[in-house]
Predict the 3D structure of the following.
Amino acid sequence: MSSLISCSVCNKEISKEALACPNCGHPNKPVVAQANEKKRIGCCGSLFVVILVIWIIGLISTDNTKSRQSQGAPSKPKTEAEIQQEKIFQKHEAKFGPKPVPSAWDGSYHEVQRYLEKIANDPDSIKIQGCTPVSVDEKAGWVVGCDYRGKNALGGVVRNSNWFVIKHGAVIKILSADSYK
């Protein structure tokens, strides 16, 4: 099967793939066919467009949901106890900084992880295995208890439980496990 054809105008042999005859310049394929070839974007391109459209719709619907929630029915009035709790919480935040937030991934606290890595012989070996919810010591600061493990100076894995006092986003004191009950 030959890949050469005759030009319809000058009858010279040209490649089937040529867009135009090199001798006379006459187009080899109809212009409509060439335009259709340029419009094809393939499977990957189509998939990209579909994903892009879904992403945009998701952004729009999330914004609408947030605006509906903020414009929704007024929330019920707070009780006297809720107002008092909020005032106490604000007082603690002013005194000790923002309340530590546990990681959604493993429940550990970033402040504790950072502190342990800073004092450890092998920072990469530190693994927090569990932590208590945050409580407050009126005199010291935010308090969390954590179970963790890491390698000691001899390379052996050691497991510990301690209470960590956190103030203004940093551990300021580490206490033994029996300090708080």
Remarks:
- DSSP finds four helices and seven strands in the chain.
- The beta strands are 4-6, 13-15, 127-131, 135-137, 141-151, 157-167, 170-176.
